[in-house]
Amino acid sequence: MIWHNAARIGLLVVALLQAAAANNAAWAEPVQVVVGKSQMLQIEGQPSVIMVGNPAVADVVVETAGILFLVGLQPGETNLYVLDAAGRTLLETDVVVGRTGPRQVTVNRGVAEANLSCNPRCSPIANPAADGAEVPGDAAAADGSGNAAGGDANGQAMQELLGNMVGSMTGQQQPDN
After folding, report:
1. What's the pLDDT tens digit per position in 63-113?
2. Quick one: how far is CA 155 from the chain centroid?
3. Is the whole-model pTM more than 0.70?
4. Are 80 and 58 in contact (CB under 8 A)?
5. CB of 126 closer than 8 Å to CB of 115
6. Of 59, 139, 143, 164, which has the fewest CB atoms closer than 10 Å, so is most exposed?
């Protein structure tokens, strides 16, 4: 008799877990996305209302019924609600937008900041231009010329700075260009 009741309880627990898994309305972990990149979200049902708590941090693009793309606009946290036409919650989740992805590293040396993509070797990259995101080489030159560091001599200086920073971190001498 005890085995029989335990089996019934076990089946009930499994059924409840399956029902909870089938309803993807509330995600336990926040959705993470990098500034300037997107994350595909699949939902069950036709979205009618999409609400991003802080639209300066993230945006949503609806591709087809059940497929949404979450786009990171600037570093920060927000939340996302997706409802169907009857007002039922299809998705409710927190969203975390970060400046770097798993293969990226930001190196700060004095006032200089460099972003590198490492897979497996590190190469300099620029941050996407978005409100709140700092783009290396996007500010006017320190000499007051107004030229962005991404242009001509200033861009070359930024590449040299990045090379020196990487070289000093890895103990490798960077070749002259």
Report:
1. 988 899 999 999 999 999 999 999 999 999 999 998 877 788 888 888 888
2. 27
3. no
4. yes
5. yes
6. 143
